[in-house]
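Two proteins follow. First one:
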Amino acid sequence: MSWKKMPLPECGLYLGSGIYNIRKHGLYLDPGAFSTWTPQDYSPEDYLDFIVKDNQGNLAQIWGFDGPDWYAMEDTGIPFKARDWENKKNLCGEENPKLQDYEERKGLGMLKFIKYAKDHGIYTTGLYSNEMNPELSKKLAEFGDWWLGYDFGERYSFHLKNKSNNADAGISLENATLEDYADGLIARVKEHVEDRKAKGWGYIMATSGSFHLDYEILGGTDIPVQEDFAFRHMTISSAFARGLFRQFHLPVWGSHLAHEHYSWIPYSSKYKFPLLHAAFLHKYMNGCKLMINESGNWYTQVKLCPDSPLYALPYCTVGKNGDPTAPKSNNPYDYADIVKDAEKMYPMIDYRSPTAVRYRQVISDFYDFVKEHGTPEGQPEASFAIAKGNLDLSSFYAAHGNYAVASAYDLADMNHDWYEGDPEKSWRLLSRVFCPCPPVIPPYRNQFLSATPHGMFDIVTFAKNKISADFLIRNYKAVIFSGWNTCSKEQYAILREYVEKGGILCISLAHFSQNKKRNYRSFTVDELVNGGDFSDLCGVKVIGRGRRIYWATGTSGEKNELGVKIPRRFGILAVPIGQLEITDPAVKPLIVDDEQFDPVVIRRKCGKGEVFFVNTWYYPGGLDTDEGPGSEENTNGFLEPVYKYIAKLARGHVYITDDGEDPGENCQYVNCTYFPDAGKICLFNIDFDHPHKVFVHQFGYAEEYELEAGEFMFLDSVKLKDFEKQNDD
């Protein structure tokens, strides 16, 4: 499979800013607390000049594009009158020419802007770009690499507000399956992508804070651009996009940093802007080559932090026609009387404002860093992978039980298994073990920054079984299954081949269910792949749903390889295990129940590799309780030592420890990534207040380094020979 990677600029990174094409100042009033003012009247070309003058990167992401600018009406000599707030005239553009009379010019403004950007050495991409005259969109290709492509944003996300989600997908609730929702999403994306590609829009990107970018890629999308901060856990978002990049041989993967909207902590916090700087560094050292700051550097947009300057501006208190009981009005004629008072306060929120200046300074400083140091070539080594199972349509974040999978609320009200539960909690368990978010922005909760104390990992998807054992064995020493999975004979064969060729697999009984209707606690043996016969992979045959167990423990009074022994107990679990027939007497129990020593976790050699099989009827998310004898603070149940042991077996060429042997407290704060193609190691202390020491291990030797608070460090590594590199071909 050939791999057409996007050519990169000289500094190795596309760094951009969102440009909101709003030419007329006024009040935008969403329901509730979201009223905002657009304070200035700049053209897209004006913003382009600001990008150059203020050193805001090498890329302009232009949002939407509508009105006279989209039609380049300024070149026709036809006058368009500005709003006259004082006399309350032309506030809705009713005195201006009708743009629909100039359809042949539709999109000409985009071509004009791209040329203007190219002449200034700036690349362009479009988000939520309106349709163009097809004869004009075909001209986008003439700009070559200066036009990066079109981003459809969140157009097809499963959404809390999407009341028509079921009808749009053509789904009958009585017989609905996860596959119906997945296929419906893929089909809708595919229709749009194929239409835009046929019209000449080039690469198609998807930006959202969702956890179903894999299905948008299956719909034909070329480039995943995760909306960071909206998707709060940056290590998870990076691992997911990077895994998709490798798995589907994508041109590039990107990050859309929505810090102004979703960082949430106050501007008065000393961590507000260091958090943005840390986000840029995190994406940089995780292999991201396309970064866009969504907003904040031109004017203040939102009130999602408690001291947003927008709260000081007036807002509309009446509804349509001055009715105070009606929903607040977006009609300019209803709020015209407060515009003059708002204008006096524009310096608090516009281009001149302290917050906008601060945003531009952070972006400029990071761009200077990139220009000075370049960007490490290629992608960082990821020695193991977390598997996102087939038909996993979770949100990652909403495992508290109130959120319906695929926003299927009507269905979830009929069948509560469609609310997120144990399968989705499994992702939380994995993230707490492999990439916990320590308290680095006190007193506010850190939901964004983590280290990877047990090594770098990718997230790969088994969606629609578009994955191969060869890909897995070339790239990852181990694969650990996490959330929902609908298994199949095809998937089972892929996993068996991966293990036989040398891979390490960690998978639970529940992951072998072929169920598509979310009965994740009540499935039967008949629903298991191969009727529950996993002899050739796990060395066992599941012959029934077994008894419930209370405690899990070790197999003896001596510590095993997991560091677990009797009397350490994990629980209380109250989960059923599988009733097993052991078909390979060489299987080794590692965790057992404390009454009859029935196996709960077993280890089995298979070909050149091995399997860690978790024998519980429930998903891993239902096993994270640890409140028994010997339990300590911040422990996550009996799977935590299993996961940590596998990560140790799967260590890459470069890793960190606290004491030369294992990661500890200090490693919870230090990111370490290794770029084989560049021969570079990146270290970053995400703790803004305290230094941390770690041992950096590479190629058989270790050296201790101390990183000051918030310090980023480069180290040179041994340059690998071609056959030693992570295989990206």
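Second one, unrelated to the first:
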Amino acid sequence: MNKRFTKILCVAVSAVSVLGVAFSTGCSKYYKGEKLTGNIFTDDEVESNGGFAVKKGDYIYFINGVEGYNAVNDFGTPVKGAVYRISETDLANHNYNKVDRVVQQVAYSGNYNAGLFIYGDYIYYSTPSTERDASGAVQNTALDLKSTKLDGTETLKEPYVQLTDNTSQFRFVEENGKVYILYVETTDEVTSLHSYNTADGVDTVLAYNVGTVMFDKTDVTNHRVYYTMNVKNYIDDSNYSYNQVYTVTASATEDRFKDLDTSKILGWDKEKDKYVNCGDLVFDGRGRTDEKTPFNYDYQEELKQSGYTYALQTYQSGMLFYTRTSKHNTIPYLFALKDADLTSETLNPVTRNPDAEKRILSYSSSSDVTASSLVYIFKDSKLDFVLNAESGGGITINKAEYTGDDFKLQTKTSADEQNSLYYNIVGSSAGTASIIHVDEKYVYYTLGSGTSVNRIDYTGKLSDYSTNVLPSADSDFDPVQILNIQASSSWYNPEFIDGQILFASATTQMSAYNPIMACDIKGKSNKDIEELNEQFNGIEELINDTFSDTDKYPQASYANVQNALRYAFYTGESRSVYLNDLAARLNDKVEEDGDPVYSDKTLALYDEFLAPAENNLWKDYIDHRNVNGVEVYANRLDYYYCVLGEMNKTDSENYIAGLRNSYFVVESEEENTSWWSGLSTANKVWFVIGMVAAGLVVAGGIAAAVILILRRNRKKSPEKRRRRIKVDLTDDKDIDVYGTGEGDGGNRE
């Protein structure tokens, strides 16, 4: 077969093959990632579902650092903000860099009440849209709700749902074996509650034109949600002075008002008015002077109430907490409703309204009740007490007092009042607290505007607490700050998994990069943590106190030693990596009789820092642990907490560069003393113009000379020129074309 034809055929086949792969990839509904190995697909319970770090089986899946919605989000590109995993074994052994990327896009939401969800074999999350508008601008302010298989092989290209506002509330929940997305979206100033069935792709409007939507605060996988609805007077296009409370689950599909005869509603405009509601009416606040509408409960008896307005406070542990005011009583009364009461046949949305005497607590104003400040603690399915991060400062316990099944909380009459049912566990002088996590024993919190992480045991009695701000922790009933860790205040709250705190770091030198860091406090009491604090803080104190003694450590011999040791504290970097070369360059510039910038004594102390021993300054820091496969001593940052996951290349390089600029002497640029640098800008411009002009003149002269020479040679050349021999270079390899003597023929014997 002709060789040329063969080549054409091969190229054509290759092209068809490439197009086939491209076509099949383009038609696939998934991005294909590299398959991860391990014991991935299990039936194990999921821990911390909905947070930024979620555990299932042998792995913890986490968002790899704080990334914004405007980051490049093309599949396969993101490192920061992507979803990674680490095995529970590697987490326990502090192998924090042994991670795998699972989701190769940025996991992001402007609403930090919902993060990563795992159901079955898939991880569900939100990510900034990569769609482009007609002008090519990326529409990254929209939020795509998607999923990826736990082994990383399948990532949805098209989202289940796209939210136009990336701060919208949403949840991935499971009901009857199906995964739904509950989400709230506002369009044309109307807010609606939706449910999207990921199995069949059906989006249902659960309620149109809702007020407050209350998802479960502590169990973000709960498929039940409560919401308020106004009742509209269509005659004058206004709302009645009362409202209603409804509840619905994700699987609901039936609009309760689909057969509503709107022709009988005075003022109804079929062109603009709309009412959709799949929920069950929990409370109807219609008062005795309010006329009945098709949206009220069909209650036949005479109403006694004067019209109620409900404000949802929190929903957790199967109990809705809400306040209620009326036309004649504007003081908020706090009530509670159990999910179990919704199915009671003896209760209806009118008679379900409790009498005022059934209130849990009265507040002086609605501002005294904030969902974020109250954490309800249950024991054996009964409310035990409420933790209150009070606006006046500190944290209090307010115990529930029961009479049968009814309970009340206590009213604090004085800021200094302490009794067995209502007392401080963190003193008010500590400043305003924000509760970030509660487990079976400890409450973790921040203070003031800071982001430090503190904790105290909340299970004690009044007599157990001294209510000092931050005393030296002698017991778990004394509050303690956990090292100097600073958790980002504008992201998800820290996660507490397998005895380790995972947090987006805003600590010193890390605030610009916000990686995820891990701090192992497993099995440590507050007293243990206080001792750890003293050890940690002692590093800086030792550096300062030791080298401030200039008689023993004169600056001439120990120049810049303190900052060099601080650099070693952060990095653990051998001086052979950078410091040796820096010292040599800087010392070479020192005059002959001058003091070195980095002396041999300084460098020797740098080495001692990295290898604490009984006979050197760091003898109290010889404790060590393996971190990322390296032995790390107790005078190193990584001994206490360390980056979890992978920093992207830019952040990693900038972090090291920032530390070097902070703690090493910065080399000054050599002064340029050449004649060029001495010229003014104007003179430089005229010099360039002159050189260009001179170049053109020279080039023109050379061209003219070449032309003259060619013309002269042409006249001297013969009329008939000898024809060159044509040599076929394609097949005959025995011919030494270039006369090198290295052809095949030349090698024959």
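SUMMARY FIELD: The first strand starts at residue 30 and ends at 32. Residues 8-25, 671-675, 715-749 have pLDDT under 50 and may be disordered.
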